[in-house]
UniProtKB/TrEMBL annotation:
Pfam families: EPSP_synthase. This is UDP-N-acetylglucosamine 1-carboxyvinyltransferase. The lineage of its organism: Bacteria, Bacillati, Bacillota, Bacilli, Bacillales. Phosphoenolpyruvate binds at K22, N23. It catalyses: phosphoenolpyruvate + UDP-N-acetyl-alpha-D-glucosamine = UDP-N-acetyl-3-O-(1-carboxyvinyl)-alpha-D-glucosamine + phosphate. Keywords: Cell cycle, Cell division, Cell shape, Cell wall biogenesis/degradation, Cytoplasm, Peptidoglycan synthesis, Pyruvate, Transferase. Pathway: Cell wall biogenesis; peptidoglycan biosynthesis. It comes from Paenibacillus abyssi. Its EC number is 2.5.1.7. Residues 7-404 form the Enolpyruvate transferase domain. InterPro entries: Enolpyruvate_Tfrase_dom, Enolpyruvate_Tfrase_sf, MurA_subfamily, RNA3'P_cycl/enolpyr_Trfase_a/b, UDP_GlcNAc_COvinyl_MurA. One of its GO terms (cellular component) is cytoplasm. UDP-N-acetyl-alpha-D-glucosamine binds at R92, D305, I327.
Length: 425
């Protein structure tokens, strides 16, 4: 397993272009199965999860190639609706294939998806929604077989605004007969991106970005070319890193309106944030201030995917902050690792009480999941001394070479491969 070695204590400065959004690219690549032909998706980040998605698509009979930052995907020869268990287990997003494969082939055979250990992450809402659309579902241990000669539009109410369930149902409903209404839908920007992509191929969807999405089924779709939105979580990660290192960073290719809740938190912490179109400038010269209470919730509230990164800022802030996690029950694993670096954080059920310390110290720590790993990198950048972050395959799931991204801003991060313990240039 690779590891990152970080020489901390240097303020970040400079300009960076933000990668395309993993959480938009993954469902959009899966949604491409709904059409026969060649789809080109631009600004797709080079990530482990994207590699896995492309591998699955090839396994299903598609041709899928990276060309620069674009993926060229020919779905014409797709002839399988069976996603191998080993690939399903590599990431949560493999579940996005369920809706499109069912819609295209009338049958899908999958397994329980894998992914980061941040909570139970059931798929009951996905399955219930597909049943409402007329699918017959059989669960045999890990294996799930889902069949429907024809999906029929209906009203689906989600008990919780699940991002993945909303997306899966949108994709399943596109070729269904009649109208599907999804109420209590998730409102994340990536859902709007999926709507835009599907509509460009000829789907008839309205309402993404609100809590009610209406899909009018169509007979077929036509291939298109589409550019993925900027990654709001990577944007937020860099913004926090700029703040904790007391640097000055300009971020290009961002959508500031997707980050309203984070910008609000950063400003409360005394961090300077300036917005100019798709550019965000973040600067900080002094120690951040504590933020009394932050609660993670579905969009547009504060995102769970930025909880661990912002905790690093609060760990170094002047005063006591509270961070409440309401989405994933297992998303505080970074707390033990940050404590190794000198942070003073106590977890009480789903709240972390964070007493800010003036500085963190380098240590050897383990990335337990994707965003926890990103938080440890940020902590390492701000800490005094050397930090080693292990298990960084988690980070590679969502950040396109995180060390290169931060090194462009003046950081000193080296990647080592464990097989040879050689530095990767
Ligand atoms: C690829 C992608 O877009 N991933 C994001 C997506 O994940 P994902 O789509 O998995 O997240 P969901 O919104 O579905 O999950 C939120 C909560 O609902 C629960 N749940 C979900 C589905 C279900 O059928 N049953 C159920 O109980 C989950 O266990 C979790 O507690 O949204 C999460 C919440 O913003 C983000 O952290 C992830 O980065
Ligand atoms: C939890 C995340 O992703 P996934 O749903 O792909 O596991 C994330 O992006 O932080």
């Amino acid at each position: 397993m690779d590891k990152l070695v970080i020489e901390g204590g240097k303020p970040l400065s400079g300009t960076i272009v933000i990668q395309g959004a993993k959480n938009a690219a993954l469902p959009i690549l899966a949604a491409s199965m709904l059409v026969k032909g060649t789809v080109i998706i631009d600004h797709v980040p080079t990530l482990l999860d994207i590699e896995v998605m492309l591998e699955i698509l090839r396994e299903l009979g598609c041709k899928a190639e990276y060309s620069g930052q674009s993926v060229v995907l020919d779905t014409t020869g797709a002839n399988s609706w069976h996603v191998p268990e080993a690939l399903m287990r590599q990431m949560r997003s493999s579940i996005f294939l369920m809706g499109p494969l069912l819609a295209r082939f009338g049958e899908v055979e999958i397994y329980q998806p894998g992914g980061c250990a941040i909570g139970e992450r059931k798929i009951d809402l996905h399955l219930r929604g597909l049943k409402a659309l007329g699918a017959h579902i059989e669960e045999m241990g890990n294996r799930i077989v889902c069949k429907a000669k024809k999906l029929i539009g209906t009203e689906v109410h989600l008990d919780f605004p699940s991002v993945g369930a909303t997306e899966n149902l949108m994709m399943a409903a596109v070729l269904a007969e009649g109208i599907t209404t999804i109420s209590n839908a998730a409102r994340e920007p990536e859902i709007q991106d999926l709507q835009h992509f599907l509509n460009r191929m000829g789907a008839k969807i309205i309402g993404a970005g609100t809590d009610t999405i209406t899909v009018e089924g169509v007979q077929s779709l036509v291939p298109c070319r589409y550019r993925i939105i900027p990654d709001r979580i990577v944007t937020g990660t860099v913004m926090v890193a700029a703040a904790v290192t007391r640097g000055q960073v300009t971020l290009q290719n961002t959508n500031p309106s997707h980050l309203t809740s984070l910008i609000h938190v950063l400003r409360r912490a005394g961090v300077q944030v300036a917005i100019d179109g798709d550019i965000i400038k973040v600067g900080s010269l002094s120690r951040p201030l504590a933020v009394e209470r932050i609660v993670t919730s579905p969009y547009p509230a504060f995102p769970t995917d930025l909880q661990s990164q912002v905790m690093v800022l609060l760990a170094m802030a002047d005063g006591v902050s509270v961070m409440k996690e309401t989405i994933f029950e297992g998303r505080f694993k970074h707390v033990d690792e940050l404590s190794r670096m000198g942070a003073d954080i106590r977890v009480d059920l789903n709240s972390a009480i964070i007493r800010g310390v003036p500085r963190l110290y380098g240590a050897t720590v383990e990335a337990t999941d994707l965003r926890a790993g990103a938080a440890l990198v940020i902590a390492g950048l701000a800490a005094q001394g050397k930090t080693v972050v292990e298990q960084i395959h988690h980070i590679d799931r969502g950040y396109d070479r995180i060390e290169q991204m931060f090194n462009r801003l003046g950081a000193r991060i080296s990647r080592y491969t464990s097989v040879t313990d050689n530095q990767v240039i």
